[in-house]
Write a structure and sequence with these properties.
The structure holds two protein chains of two kinds. Chain A is of the alpha+beta class. Among the domains of chain A are: 7-124; 212-360, Histidine kinase-like ATPase, C-terminal domain (Heat Shock Protein 90, 2-Layer Sandwich), CATH 3.30.565. Chain A has nine helices and eight strands. In chain A, helix 1 runs antiparallel to helix 2 (42-73) and helix 3 (80-172) packs antiparallel against helix 4 (179-206). Chain A is elongated and about 145 Å long. In chain B, 69% of the residues lie in helices and 3% in strands. Chain B has six helices and two strands, in the order H-H-H-H-E-E-H-H. In chain B, a hairpin with a 6-residue loop joins strand 1 (102-103) and strand 2. In chain B, helix 3 (36-61) packs antiparallel against helix 4 (68-95), helix 4 (68-95) runs antiparallel to helix 5 and helix 4 (68-95) packs antiparallel against helix 6. The longest helix of chain B has 28 residues, at 68-95. The radius of gyration of chain B is 21 Å and the shape is extended. The chains are: A alpha+beta, B mainly alpha.
Chain lengths: 387, 153
């Protein structure tokens, strides 16, 4: 019968146990360095705890197994008690390592969710900030334009008076009268100032960098293309009834897309699976009309009344600013937004964007250059200059 | 807290050592398979095995395997999982081995391989060398790689 020597087995076992002990101690040093580099990193903390557990494991394992061999093969039953105690420690450390690992498994999940939430929050904040900046710039520019136009309008009236009277004076003064040269100088300078005011006015009117000639239907289509996956994911049917003729006007494409996307997302969230979201555009006298209707859960009247109130939200984690921005965007287009809702039947949002506002810059472009006034009582004041 | 642990643990250890033999009667035989201690130990091995698999899954779930350090750690856990299975089988074979025939004295002792179980005991005792050393070497190398490239996270 074959018999194999036990000595190589013991030597191999003890040597490898010693190597394991050294490796775990070295690993512990490395894991401590990782924690020192980034003390708040959950992964490094876990590896450090694990390295500590491994050091204890290597010690208890070495002792318990050595004692076991001594008892079994070297006839040392007196060591049985100590061996069993270390064996117990060995078991405990296995459970500890398993617990640390499984605990890490859960913590890692939570950590990732927190990280995702953080990124989402950061992205939303950036989006809100960028939108806010754009809105501020838009409001500021519009205010400055209006101020400039107001000033130009204010200067133009007295200027017409000066110009008109200087021309009358010229007509009533003899050719050899020395004061005729003064009247001529006054008329010329008044004419120069008037030309300057005209140029200034034209520039102020043309400064519409935030708005461009856009078709509302195109804006709606491109926004819906972006949101279609979200609708499909919830198995919602989208009915888009767009106006057959282009609804061209001076719109801020970016802002309108943001507003429309927010409204459609709200509709998607509110509508149960299998529901319908309807989007319609139409021309209604001087308005380009956009109607968004859903078959969602709807809102009670008290909620509808507060929809446009800043920071009011019924969503968990909502900012309560989305609808406020939507209204502000519509306001910037001089439009009107209305919201009707019935609990259990859905919500309808209607946006009316006036053509008058959008057409105004073109009207100014087509205006003929201002003629010198014939009489101070009838100064030429263009209609569009009043805005 | 640390001081408290350092005081309590040796005290418990001494208390156990000085306990009357009849109190320890249940304990003394825990390595004989079938006792509570042996079951706990074997279950601990299985638990450890499962946790290793969980960790590997976690590394892949978080896409951390693309980093060299974490790839080495995955190897650590994989080898340790294998070692746990090996230890489970080894313990069962060792603790149920009745009256092993040992020839010789001292370092010249030889184990008579009279059945499959004896072979199993002998082979599984090499697990330290075959599995634990490479596993902890991988652990050390993995941590070293992570320390060298802290941005690897």
């Amino acid at each position: 019968m074959i018999s194999l020597p036990l000595a190589p087995l013991w030597i191999l076992g003890y040597l490898s146990s010693m190597v394991v002990l050294i490796l775990t101690i070295l690993s512990l040093r490395l894991s401590r360095r990782l924690v020192e580099q980034d003390p708040e990193n959950a992964l490094w903390l876990f590896l450090n705890w694990l390295a500590i557990a491994f050091v204890i494991f290597s010690i208890t394992h070495l002792i318990s197994h050595s004692l076991h061999d001594l008892i079994t093969y070297w006839d040392r039953p007196d060591l049985a008690l100590v061996q069993r105690i270390f064996g117990g420690f060995d078991t405990v450390i296995y459970v500890a390592i398993a617990a640390i690992t499984l605990f890490f498994h859960r913590i890692q999940r939570l950590y990732r969710r927190m990280e995702a939430d953080h990124h989402h929050l950061e992205a939303t904040s950036h989006e809100i900030l960028a939108l806010n900046r754009e809105m501020e710039a838009l409001v500021m520019e519009r205010t400055m334009s209006e101020m400039a136009l107001g000033m130009a309008h204010g200067i133009r009236n007295p200027l017409h008076v000066i110009g008109g009277f200087s021309h009358r004076l010229l007509r009533k003064t003899d050719e050899d009268d020395p004061s005729r040269a003064w009247a001529t100088a006054i008329a010329e300078e008044a004419r120069r100032i008037e030309q300057m005011v005209e140029r200034f006015e034209t520039l102020a009117m043309r400064k519409t960098s935030f708005f461009a000639q856009e078709d509302l239907n195109v804006i709606v289509r491109s926004t819906l293309e972006l949101l279609l996956p979200e609708l499909k994911a919830k198995n919602l049917s989208l009915v888009a009834e767009l106006c057959s003729e282009p609804l061209v006007g001076r719109f801020n494409k970016h802002l309108l897309k943001v507003a429309l996307a927010h409204l459609v997302r709200n509709a998607v969230e509110a509508t149960p699976r299998g529901g319908t979201v309807l989007l319609r555009t139409a021309r209604e006298q001087q308005f380009a009309v956009l109607i968004l209707q859903d078959t969602g859960r709807g809102m009670p009247q008290e909620v509808v009344e507060k929809v446009f109130v800043p920071f009011y939200t019924t969503k968990i984690g909502g900012t309560g600013l989305g609808m406020v921005f939507v209204r502000q965007i519509v306001d910037e287009h001089r439009g009107v937004i209305t919201l009707e809702s019935q609990v259990g039947r859905g919500t309808t949002v209607t946006i009316r964007l006036p053509h008058r506002f959008t057409d105004r810059p073109e009207m100014m472009d087509e205006l003929p250059p201002a003629a010198p006034p014939e009489a101070p009582a009838a100064p030429s004041t263009p209609e569009a200059g009043s805005g | 807290m640390r001081r408290w642990i350092l005081q309590i643990c040796p005290a418990v250890f001494v208390l156990v050592l000085l306990s009357p033999q009849y109190v320890l009667a249940e304990w003394v035989t825990w390595h004989q398979f079938g006792t509570q201690g042996s079951y706990v130990h074997q279950i601990a091995h299985l638990l450890l095995f499962l946790s290793m698999l969980f960790f590997i899954h976690e590394i892949f779930y978080a896409h951390l395997q693309k980093f060299h350090g974490f790839r080495l750690l995955v190897w650590t856990w994989a080898i340790l999982a294998l070692w746990n299975l090996d230890a489970f089988v080894g313990h069962w074979a060792d603790w149920t081995l009745e009256n092993p025939i040992i020839l010789g004295q001292g370092w010249d002792r030889r184990l008579v391989m009279y059945d499959f179980q004896t072979w199993l005991v002998y082979i599984t005792k090499i697990d330290h060398f075959l599995l634990l050393v490479p596993a902890f070497l991988m652990f050390y190398l993995g941590l070293r790689a992570l320390v060298r490239k802290p941005g690897a996270e």
